[in-house]
Amino acid sequence: MTAKDIDARETAAVLVRADGEVDEESLAYLHEKVAAALDRPGLPPVNGEVRVRRASAHHVELPWSGRTDIRVGSDLVVVHAREASARELADRLHDRLRSAAERVTHRSDTTRRTAAPPPWRGGPQK
Fold first, then answer.
1. CA 26 to CA 77: how far, in whole Å?
2. Which of 51, 42, 64, 66 is nearest to 14 (CA)?
3. DSSP 80-115
4. Mapping DSSP to helix (H, G, I), strand (E, B) and coil, where does residue 121 land?
5. Kind and range of the H or E element at 125?
6. I need a labelling partner for 99 at 20 to 30 A (CA). Which of 19, 44, 45, 125 fits?
7. What is the pLDDT of residue 112?
8. Rounded Cα–Cα distance for residues 117 and 105 (Å)
9. Which helix (H) or strand (E) holds 40?
10. Dist CA 54 CA 36 (whole Å)
């Protein structure tokens, strides 16, 4: 891998990197999808990196792979995906990243928890 094989863009504090033969159109679409998943009100500060790679071997069934290492507040969100095309990979990463970020933001919601554990876990007996 040489310096010209690596392309980097930044979405807020999230760096989008590409290794190998990734065209500008695919990288721009991925950039839009990452921005759409993370530019939401209510999210704590976000920073990290998204890496996309296309396998150079022609016989690989799913040549596109992606990985995100993103900090949402104090939590680390790691998402992996492998797909046949760049658009499918961007869509899959968007869905998984949005879902993981939503889980992190709602993890501390006390409105979703019960007041006491159920009886079979040592809660109050009726």
1. 23
2. 51
3. EEEESSHHHHHHHHHHHHHHHHHHHHHTT-STTS-S
4. helix
5. none
6. 19
7. 62
8. 23
9. none
10. 23
Read off the tokens for 69.
Answer: 């290492």
What are phi and psi for residue 125, nearest 5 degrees?
-90, 140
Confidence of residue 41 (pLDDT cuts 50, 70, 90): confident
d(CA 119, CA 5): 59
pLDDT at 96 over 90: yes
Give yes or no for a contact between 40 and 12, defined as CB atoms under 8 angstroms apart. Answer: no
Check: pTM over 0.85? Answer yes or no. Answer: no
Q: Name which residue leads in pLDDT, 116 or 35.
A: 35
- State the residue for tokens 């989008």: 16
In the chain the beta strands, taken as DSSP E runs, fall at 7-11, 14-19, 46-54, 64-72, 75-83
